[in-house]
Amino acid sequence: MEFLKNPSYDFLGKTKFLLAVSITLILVGVAYISSHGLRYGVEFSGGTQLIARFQSRPEVDKVRSAADTVMSGATIQTYDDPSKNQVLIRLPHTGGSEGDLSGSAQAVLQALKARYGENPVVESSTEIVGPVVGAELRRKAVQLTVWGLLFQLIYIAFRFGGAVWGLAATVAVFHDVLITLGLLDIFGFEITLNPGGAEKFKRETGRNIGRRLAIILDGSVASAPNINSQIGAEGVITGRFSVQEADELAKILRAGALPATLKYLQELTVG
C-alpha dihedral over 140, 150, 261, 84, to 10 degrees? Predict the structure, then answer.
């Protein structure tokens, strides 16, 4: 089906106008970011992410009203398929300890029970991201962006036989990033990660029940528990740990969602 027949647009003839629009958007966006800062989500600023599943379809306004009694500034939005009756609640970090982050999620659940009891929460999961991990994710995100632009410049310059082509493509991408960041900040959108990671992890662990999951920290295996069931946003590690070993592992894992990838190394069967 052809919607546009013989399209002909004189983009070059409108160069001055479009260039003025681009420069205006960039300047306004940079000025707004400089004065107001970027709105980081929980993953980049630290905080608590609570996913609550209700008995019936929840009313977001009532959920927000209950959450505001615990902490102002919480982000409330529907999560996953609407038929699952799930709501995602993001609680920002307020400068307290890791225990405070965990306690805020429990406080929200209690507030929902008290103020929205006609539609109770039947299941919930909590993810805590410490401020140190959030800062590390921000740093790595900037690094990846810079390295990506640099390698794009080198590749296009080599592929098309001229540095000017690589530079032009890199400037164009950087131009798009600046305008996008500015508009997202002006209209109040947060910079965050996709909350579907827990669902992917749950699916992968479900495929590997009975195998070992290696927890690798600083290049060394800190623990290698068996996968006994699917693991979503929460999981339980059981094993023959001493009190000190269990306490050390718990403190490390409570540091937040580590920016690490899951990689299956090997399977070892002992008779």
Answer: 80
